[in-house]
Amino acid sequence: MSINHLVRPNILKLVPYSSARSEFKGKAEVFLDANENPFETGLNRYPDPLQWKLKAAISNLKGVPVEQIFLGNGSDEAIDLVVRIFCEPRQDHILILPPTYGMYQVSADIADVGVRSVSLTPDFQPDVPAIVAAADKHSKILFICSPNNPTGNSVDLANIRSLCAQFKGIVVVDEAYIDFSKAASCTSLLAEFSNLIVLQTFSKAWGMAGIRLGMAFTSPEIIQLFNKVKPPYNINQLTQQIALEALETSQDDYKKMLSVLLSERERLTNALAELKFVQQVFPTDANFILVKMDDPNGTYQYLVDAGIIVRNRNSVHLCAGSLRITVGRPEENDALLIALNNRP
Ligand SMILES: *Cc1c(COP(=O)(O)O)cnc(C)c1O
Q1: How far is the CA of 196 from the centre of ligand 1 (A)?
Q2: Which of 40, 139, 206, 326 could anchor a disulfide with 202, C-beta 3.0 to 4.6 Å?
Q3: pLDDT tens-digit profile of 278-316?
């Protein structure tokens, strides 16, 4: 299925900026084409606009072909580009499933694109018939977050498959927390659905939020659109180097961190459930835990006074009474549990 009919007409006919680095292909010794400073500083050259080396390493890790990978300045760049590629301002809209990640709404608001909300069910799954009923020909993008922020649960693969099949626009599945989940990535559905975009990131399990590197996996057709619209050098040289280095030499560190975080998640889950003012610890597939309790605002403030900051989600749809707690290092989690056990 072609997705051209979903793309904004100005983007379809856009002639992208052609950079010096993308125009010349081949080998040479002398580069006088990009107005760079020729003296070697280690960073005097523009970076590879399409990050081929880094994509090859990511392709290897994820089992997705390089021509189905886009890299963004954080997943946030990919979210912003999807909205600008597919949604005509003041005419089209996106669908979101609250409670969910805030950037989908913010990116749409900045682009002057409408937002339709279809609540998750009380067990935090997409309400498939309600989503299908809410959609019309101007519903260009459906954002699904799995595992979902702030609830922590994974969306059932059967629901995602059913939405990819029934929703007539682009389905974005944001898997920022997939490394912490037992559920398989939706990249396994890419061969089946050309309207699917799967987002992942180096910001969470890889411990590299500071380098700003997000990944989008999708059909080669949508990758071409991303590449047309992105700023030419969106991933800087340092980020490309550091990410490549991490993939080549730090996979063991990554696995160690992940295993500590998963066992700490379990320890925190059990200890939180023991607290007398805690009503419910929601099951989580992410590196955070949503906890429903008596007096969430008071507990939030009590923790702030103890120098511990968590996220107050008490006023968020379906999250009344809840704080969202990130799994920290063992000693940080100890400090949290000591504070909570001493709460008057
Ligand atoms: C943290 C998070 C991200 C990560 O965004 P980056 O721009 O890659 O740092 C994306 N989606 C969700 C749902 C998140 O919680």
Answers
A1: 18
A2: 206
A3: 999 999 999 999 999 999 999 999 999 999 999 999 999
pLDDT in tens, 175-229: 999 999 999 999 999 999 999 999 999 999 999 999 999 999 999 999 999 999 9
Contact call for residues 35 and 24 (beta carbons, < 8 A): no
Q: Please give the sequence-ordered ranges of beta strands (E in DSSP) within the chain, or none if there are none.
A: 69-72, 93-96, 114-117, 139-145, 170-174, 196-201, 214-218, 278-281, 288-293, 311-312, 322-326
Pocket test for ligand 1, best of 79, 180, 201 (most atoms within 8 A of CB): 201
Task: Assess contact for 215 and 239: CB atoms under 8 A.
Answer: no
Structural domains of the chain, with CATH: 4-249 (3.40.640.10), 252-341 (3.90.1150.10)
